[in-house]
Amino acid sequence: PAGKLPKIYNALRVETKNTAGQDVALTAEVQQLLGDHRVRAVAMSGTDGLVRGMEIADTGAPISVPVGEATLGRIFNVLGEPVDEQGPVNASATAPIHREAPNLTELETKPKVFETGIKVIDLLAPYRQGGKVGLFGGAGVGKTVLIQELINNIAKEHGGVSVFGGVGERTREGNDLYEEFKESGVINADDLSKSKVALC
């Protein structure tokens, strides 16, 4: 509503034309309320053509992305829009990108080793089940191969699926990863529902 500031994490939408008559479509996420009917927001795409005084609308909700089996084998941008040129996603549900952490009563209290099926990892640097894992290394040391093996083993041994988030990846690297996933069978190009991963 007019005169009301949006909540933190709400999505703001600009859809208008700039002074040159070009279409401008931008989604931004509220990060800070500055007062005096102003907010600080982070743009989720390029800001070319954006000028002071343009109208912006509060969507009333945070950025939401599609979830479920329809996302398997697909590639999404930060807004949950498919970027793999395979048409729209027929997901029956969406979920906000910011959610509350699970209650402590829902978490496993006893440390348990997550068996990856990769002997050298399970023996020398075991992963904790329910924990977070980061892979760091230079170019050509095998990070992608390790990720593919983890995704495959998680699907086979635990009946699970994975979400791969490429933060700061170059477009070429993301495309190479997608092609490698298809070659290894992690992404089934013939039947996406049999894929084991969704990419962001």
Automatic annotation (TrEMBL):
Q: Gene3D superfamilies, alphabetically?
A: 2.40.10.170, P-loop containing nucleotide triphosphate hydrolases
**Coarse class of the protein's main subcellular location:** membrane
| CDD domains named in the record | ATP-synt_F1_beta_N
Task: List each copy of the ATPase F1/V1/A1 complex alpha/beta subunit nucleotide-binding domain by range.
Answer: 117-188
Highest taxon in the source lineage: Bacteria
- Give an example GO molecular function: ATP binding
The name on file for this protein is ATP synthase beta subunit
Native source organism of the sequence: Synechococcus sp. RS9905
